[in-house]
Backbone:
């Protein structure tokens, strides 16, 4: 017996051809090196470029940029617009999330999916839709006899409110989903009226969610580019300025300074976050009992009317864009026609297929990249795990536009070893991956942490190497989640505009940019058709993946984030 | 091959999980680590498995020092407390896992895995997923999976504690039988003394990260070294005694007849079933007058608790079997026991 065992033991030693520790270290090293090359270097490039002057380093760029009154005017425009858009989006989304989480309205599924639609299209679809509704030739002015001027401050603000609403909703909905019935019961027992309960129990327990939602909505609005271009008219913001100065006039120093300024909201929010989380103690413990929703007709009537009104507004935007795309010439000739889908101008449908290709590449590579980072930080215990976890979630606070500018500054530089990627699709793919790294990473590592470490240990004791455990046990268990992460990357790659706007060349057109250019040239109907195509592709992807997951019996995977 | 643990210590922060611990598990032996929760059983088992590293000390298997051997190369079988079957693999695939790691040819691996499943009476469940099996079945598969690659040592961490009582009793004898049939050196962790008594060749009682006593079930029961062991395995009356200047041992105000003792005894133990009760003094070495405080009927036996007059605060209980005349509460009685039933207990 013991001889057999000894023999087998030898066989095992020979069988494991790589040392586990070495594998862990090598994989961690690669993950970290990629992060340095495609995240740290671009950010540092912005910082260093903003301080670079003709003879070394100095504050000249800052002095020049901040010395003009125009930049202050634009900054004020941006801050006021983004604050208002974020306030509108967050307050409307809060009530909407409340309606879905704390009442027993029927058809919650429909209400939920309808307001997600803005996620399926580039941000500027909101501006497009608003123009078809409220613009000079919009439904209200032309057919209903109104006289509304939507171009400018209000148009941008409204478009960004619509655009950021679902992002705010997802955060607030998660915050409102957890609740402790005991708090509510004791409030009721003490005789508190509903509004008082809301103010003293509900609102404080969701404070952190509100803060996070405001930050996300503000940051998306202030760096959004498409809506400002399409519906801004003479109203200019920092995001458009940075684009004009960098692409139009090659003023990289100024671009870098504005880029650094756009990082400020993230820095401020990080500082505030500490304060807020200090005051927010654990609201829900393992003894919490979930809230039971009691029927209440008046409440349902109020929240029902509210929710369906919002849902109707959210449906009206893609719907009007769709209608505009299938009429001969909005608003003069409303006869049905598919001619705008011929895409016989510019590059034709090439940008669309480019985007689909880029989105697939982003999905596949993105899953590999974030899953490796998650595995390295959760399962491999190497000295690199700490820095990797930190860098993994760093992109959450970096606006896409800033990262995109960083990519231009970093990879346009001939001394960068990846300079050959400049002006190619692979660089766009990498930008999308690292721009969305934080969310993909958090989803993957949460799912990994739910897998008991006992499986790893059982596999190890049976003689399995780290890699075998990964491929035979871990990945088969989390593939539905990873598929969800892939869909998330696909969606973001199809619709992101601000992030890639600097990296686009005539050879590397993507769909979201085409929509922008078409509508900039006044081809509103074709732009609408392009947007519809993007939305349909994203929706088709969601449906296919949902079907795959359903067939595989994995029903609890969230696809829309 | 026998396993040797020498001077192993492990600190978690300021918690001494293991404190300079040494023990030997002979070849082919079934050893139980027994002790209350938190005494370091799991830590010791995990260090032997290599899943945790000791701060100091040495572990050898046969002639080999294990310190340089990766856990995946130790060729140990492990069964965990919680169900650790891979949820994405069928029972058969689970059992084949270790064989595939050892690059067994597919057909051979499958045959061996079926043989193992047969051994645990689950050959007909081979294609089921873990989620389709009961807790007991899952643990059987886990055992089959652990022994399939012919490990040199089998480690079980409370493998039965998550199962319900009936399944647990069934599996006890089954695990023991399998272990004896294949003659594998085995260590099982448990906090359940009856499990240890029933299954083990050798029991290692652990306390606070140290070995309290090692021995067979009988040795531990009949010759507990300390009050802790005596109370952990069964129950015992422990009598605080003090030598007086004349050289006799005083239990309260009465001298006790004890076997020839060496050194200073402070505590003596006597099992309740070694104590009898009578209404008049008996001819045993020790017969102490007292008052019956409680009389409890427990089905197949009765327990009588007596406060002896010589030391009224040190209750002595007697376990009485058979159809005996029982005293009533408050009766004056005698508690009787022979000196050879008395055990010297260390602190
Ligand atoms: N990973 C760990 N981190 C910190 N303390 C631990 C860890 N594992 C065990 N301990 C501590 O070590 C002691 C022994 O634990 P353990 O070996 O699990 O006990 P047992 O299995 O006998 O119940 C306990 O005090 C426990 O709290
Ligand atoms: Mg334990």
Residues:
């Amino acid at each position: 017996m013991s001889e057999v065992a000894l023999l087998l033991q030898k066989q095992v030693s020979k069988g494991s051809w790589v040392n586990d520790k070495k594998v862990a270290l090598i994989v961690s090293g690669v993950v970290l090196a990629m992060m340095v090359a495609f995240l740290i270097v671009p950010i540092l490039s912005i910082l260093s470029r903003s301080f670079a002057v003709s003879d070394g380093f100095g504050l000249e760029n800052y002095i020049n940029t901040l010395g003009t009154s125009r930049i202050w005017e634009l900054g004020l425009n941006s801050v006021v617009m983004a604050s208002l858009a974020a306030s509108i989006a967050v307050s409307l989304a809060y009530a909407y999330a409340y309606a879905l989480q704390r009442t027993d309205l029927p058809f919650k599924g429909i209400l939920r999916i309808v307001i997600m639609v803005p996620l399926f299209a580039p941000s500027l679809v909101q501006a497009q839709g608003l123009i078809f509704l409220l613009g000079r030739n919009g439904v209200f002015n032309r057919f209903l006899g109104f006289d509304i001027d939507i171009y400018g401050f209000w148009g941008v603000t409204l478009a960004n409110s619509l655009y950021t609403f679902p992002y705010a909703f997802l955060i607030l909905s998660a915050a409102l989903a957890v609740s402790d019935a005991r708090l509510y019961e004791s409030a009721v027992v003490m005789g508190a009226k509903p509004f008082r309960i809301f103010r003293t129990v509900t609102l404080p327990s969701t404070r952190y969610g509100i803060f996070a939602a405001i930050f996300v909505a503000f940051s998306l609005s202030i760096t959004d580019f498409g809506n400002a271009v399409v519906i801004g008219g003479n109203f200019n913001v920092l995001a458009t300025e940075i684009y004009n100065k960098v692409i139009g006039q090659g003023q990289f120093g100024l671009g870098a300074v504005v880029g650094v300024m756009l990082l400020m909201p993230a820095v401020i929010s990080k500082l505030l976050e500490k304060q807020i989380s200090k005051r927010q103690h654990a609201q829900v413990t393992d003894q919490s009992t979930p809230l039971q929703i009691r029927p209440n007709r008046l409440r349902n009537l109020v929240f029902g009317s509210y929710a369906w009104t919002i849902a109707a507004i959210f449906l009206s935007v893609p719907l009007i864009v769709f209608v505009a795309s299938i009429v001969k010439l909005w608003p003069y000739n409303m006869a049905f026609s598919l001619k705008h889908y011929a895409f016989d101008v510019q590059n034709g449908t090439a940008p669309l297929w480019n985007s689909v290709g880029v989105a697939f590449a982003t999905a596949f590579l993105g899953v590999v990249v974030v899953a490796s980072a998650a595995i390295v930080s959760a399962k491999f215990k190497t000295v690199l795990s700490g820095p990797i976890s930190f860098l993994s979630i760093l992109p959450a606070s970096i606006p896409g536009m800033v990262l995109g500018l960083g990519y231009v500054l970093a990879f346009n530089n001939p001394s960068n070893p990846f300079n050959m990627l400049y002006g190619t699709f692979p660089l766009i793919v990498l930008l999308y991956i690292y721009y969305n790294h934080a969310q993909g990473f958090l989803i993957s590592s949460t799912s990994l942490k739910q897998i008991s470490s006992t499986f790893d240990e059982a596999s190890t004791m049976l003689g399995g190497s780290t890699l075998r455990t990964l491929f035979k046990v871990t990945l088969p268990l989390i593939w539905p989640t990873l598929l969800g992460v892939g869909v998330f990357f696909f969606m973001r790659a199809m619709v992101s505009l601000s992030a890639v706007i600097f990296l686009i060349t005539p050879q590397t057109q993507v769909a979201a940019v085409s929509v922008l250019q078409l509508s900039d040239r006044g081809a509103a109907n074709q732009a609408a058709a392009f947007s519809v195509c993007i939305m349909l592709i994203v929706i088709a992807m969601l449906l296919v993946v949902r079907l795959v997951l359903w067939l595989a019996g994995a029903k609890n995977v969230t696809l829309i984030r | 091959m026998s396993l040797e643990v020498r001077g192993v210590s492990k600190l978690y922060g300021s918690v001494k999980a293991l404190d300079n611990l040494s023990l030997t598990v002979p070849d082919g032996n079934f050893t139980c680590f027994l002790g209350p929760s938190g005494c370091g059983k799991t830590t010791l088992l995990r260090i032997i498995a290599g899943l945790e590293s000791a701060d100091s000390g040495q572990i050898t298997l046969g002639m080999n020092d294990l310190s340089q051997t990766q856990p995946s190369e130790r060729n140990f079988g492990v069964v965990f407390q919680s169900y650790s079957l891979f949820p994405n693999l069928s029972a058969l695939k689970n059992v084949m896992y270790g064989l595939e790691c050892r690059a067994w040819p597919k057909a051979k691996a499958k045959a061996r895995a079926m043989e193992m499943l047969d051994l645990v009476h689950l050959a007909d469940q081979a294609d089921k997923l873990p989620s389709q099996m009961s807790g007991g079945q899952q643990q059987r598969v886990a055992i089959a999976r652990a022994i399939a690659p012919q490990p040199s040592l089998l480690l079980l961490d409370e493998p039965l504690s998550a199962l319900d009582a009936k399944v647990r009793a069934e599996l006890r004898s089954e695990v023991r039988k399998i272990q004896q049939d294949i003659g594998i050196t085995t260590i099982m962790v448990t906090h359940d003394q009856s499990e240890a008594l029933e299954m083990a060749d050798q029991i290692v009682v652990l306390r606070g990260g140290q070995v309290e006593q090692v021995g067979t079930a009988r040795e531990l029961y009949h010759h507990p070294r300390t009050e802790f062991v005596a109370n952990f395995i069964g129950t015992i009356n422990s009598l605080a005694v003090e030598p007086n200047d004349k050289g006799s041992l005083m239990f309260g105000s009465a001298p006790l007849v004890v076997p020839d003792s060496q050194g200073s005894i402070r505590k003596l133990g006597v099992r309740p079933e070694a104590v009898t009760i009578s209404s008049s003094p008996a001819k045993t070495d020790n017969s102490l007058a007292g008052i019956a405080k409680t009389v409890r009927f427990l089905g197949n036996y009765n327990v009588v608790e007596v406060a002896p007059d010589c030391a009224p605060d040190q209750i002595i209980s007697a376990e009485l079997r058979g159809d005996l005349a029982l005293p009533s509460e408050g009766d004056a009685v005698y508690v009787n026991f022979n000196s050879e039933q008395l055990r010297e207990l260390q602190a």
Remarks:
- Residues B 12, 15, 17, 35, 37-43 surround adenosine-5'-diphosphate (ligand 1) (CB under 6 Å).
- Chain B has a mean pLDDT of 91.
